[in-house]
Amino acid sequence: MNATGIIVEYNPFHNGHLHHIKQSRNLTDADIVIAVMSGHFLQRGEPSFADKWLRTEMALQNGADIVVELPYAFATAPAVDFAKGGVALLAALKCRALAFGSEQGQIEPFLATYDAIEGDNATFQKNVQHAVKSGLSYPKALNSAYSQMTTKNNGSFADLTQPNNILGYHYVEQIFKQKSAMQAVTIPRIASGYHDHILAGTTIQSATGIREAVFDGSLQDVEAFMPASNFSLLQQATLMNWDVLYPTLRYMLLRLSPSEIAAHAEVTEGIEYLLQKAARTSDTFTQFMTRIKSKRYTWTRLQRMLTHIYTGFTKAQLIEASMPHYIRLLGMTENGQRYISAHKKEFTLPLVSRVAAFDDPMLSQDCKATDLYYLAQQRAPGEDFRRPPIRI
């Protein structure tokens, strides 16, 4: 059976994601589509809009055959490590292709970009570090170094100012660096951009726009932008954002000492003192973020930092999380179950369907993240131990 992999968040699953799954299956002639999906905290340092089991069910009802969880350490990481974890899991599951959406829409510029950067990586990294020292944020430093490289080379390169292109480049990079046999293919992103607000005249909207519309209005305002089954599922959900988690985060920041805050992943350069100062004077998450935002720290980097403080994820744990240790199964269709039965012995990582049967620090952090996500909903801990994989 020919399996194609996708790396997703589904925050929430919408019509654009449905298009992505259909095109991925068609372009690669796939019998199986396997989704590696983030759990309860996401790459931009946010709690997921809806819980991971509801998002798993959304995916399985709309074209995915298997959904596995991207461990917390990678799901909340910058693009290069987010990609590293996703590619490693798809390779372990024996996918023949990885299909990703991009603003670029063609794979050749990504391959040319990889060849150009790797061809003179020492100079590229030197230019990145020089830009960081000049005061640019790391993403802007990367773009500065990349612009210098592309102006000196002829050819068609990927536009790495676009969010999906950035992730796409790192998927391609990781396929090569991990020496995977997977083929990378890309599907043009259509109708709306990653950060776009709701746009008139189309039923394909960005997840960002959908979340904004729900929190500024109501769930009914976004019904046209997602499959009917998914809208029904969301009506049953408790929807989450940082406003819900902020009271607990604020308590943590005021309770911990500066040195305890500084032990968490991505907390650097003495910012722990600013975090505590802002927590004392900010009654809302927006106020808090406004007081800590600067040219040095992007909104996303700050949110990832706060996510790690909220979940207790430390620098030591981050160092240890070099590659995924397991495949955590969240759900499957009958077709997906047949693929697992036929290929399980070929998987290069252990398949975990029962959390209680697998002891691993990385998995423990995933379970901890779930418990703390549900804390804000006043739900009991231990959901990862009670929930079997979803079967559709």
Automatic annotation (TrEMBL):
This is tRNA(Met) cytidine acetate ligase. Its EC number is 6.3.4.-. InterPro entries: Rossmann-like_a/b/a_fold, tRNA(Met)_cyd_acetate_ligase. Keywords: ATP-binding, Cytoplasm, Ligase, Nucleotide-binding, RNA-binding, tRNA processing, tRNA-binding. One of its GO terms (molecular function) is ATP binding. Catalyzes the formation of N(4)-acetylcytidine (ac(4)C) at the wobble position of elongator tRNA(Met), using acetate and ATP as substrates. First activates an acetate ion to form acetyladenylate (Ac-AMP) and then transfers the acetyl group to tRNA to form ac(4)C34. Its main location: cytoplasm. ATP binds at residues 7-20, 101, 164, 189-190. It is an enzyme of class 6 (ligase). It catalyses: cytidine(34) in elongator tRNA(Met) + acetate + ATP = N(4)-acetylcytidine(34) in elongator tRNA(Met) + AMP + diphosphate. One of its GO terms (cellular component) is cytoplasm. GO terms for biological process: tRNA modification. Belongs to the TmcAL family. It is found in: Cytoplasm. SUPFAM superfamilies: Nucleotidylyl transferase (SSF52374).
